[in-house]
């Protein structure tokens, strides 16, 4: 099981296997190697000033925490059954084409996404 902390200075190549955030859209585990079938990663920075902590098992996300450092709109890959909460409140999101969703964030708030 892979466990990495963002302050570890992970190479760009490894980061790209765990997360991509082109065009302000966050995609997690886009190219996970078989030997990393489970693990967790803390402190990964995405475009839009988001800091991500996430865990996965059998190559599927189990939990995702997003800290919004700038209060930008967050756009991420949609998974069926996904729920978003912040401070115990349900956060509504807008479904976009191409299996994406977006939701508004508040600077300094943490958003918990469950699958």
Give the gist of this structure:
With 115 residues, the chain is mainly β. The protein has one helix and twelve strands; from the N terminus they run βαβββββββββββ.
CA gyration radius, whole angstroms: 13 Å
Tally of DSSP β-strands: 12
Helix content: under 10%
The largest sheet, given as strand count, sense and whether it forms a barrel, is: 7 strands, mixed
Low confidence ranges: none
Overall mean pLDDT: 88
Strand/helix succession: EHEEEEEEEEEEE
Category from helices, strands and their pairing: mainly beta
Number of helices: 1
Distance between the termini: 20 Å
Q: Strand order across the biggest sheet?
A: 1-4-5-6-12-8-9
Instruction: Give the overall form.
Output: globular
Strand content range: over 45%
Overview features:
115 residues, mainly beta, seven-stranded mixed sheet
Structure report:
With 115 residues, the protein is mostly beta strands. It has 1 helix and 12 strands; from the N terminus they run E-H-E-E-E-E-E-E-E-E-E-E-E. Strands 1-4-5-6-12-8-9 form a 7-stranded mixed beta sheet, with no helix packed on it. The chain has a 5-stranded mixed beta sheet with strand order 2-3-7-11-10. It is globular, with a radius of gyration of 13 Å.
């Amino acid at each position: 099981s892979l466990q990495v902390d963002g302050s570890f200075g992970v190479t760009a190549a490894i980061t790209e296997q765990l997360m991509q955030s082109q065009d302000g859209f966050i995609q997690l585990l886009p190219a996970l190697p078989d030997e990393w079938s489970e693990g967790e990663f803390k402190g990964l920075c995405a475009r839009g000033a988001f800091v991500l902590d996430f865990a996965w098992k059998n190559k599927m996300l189990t939990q995702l925490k997003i800290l919004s450092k700038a209060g930008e709109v967050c756009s991420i890959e949609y998974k069926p059954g996904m729920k978003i909460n912040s401070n115990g409140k349900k956060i509504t999101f807008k479904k976009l084409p191409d299996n994406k969703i977006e939701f508004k964030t508040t600077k300094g708030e943490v958003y918990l996404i469950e699958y």
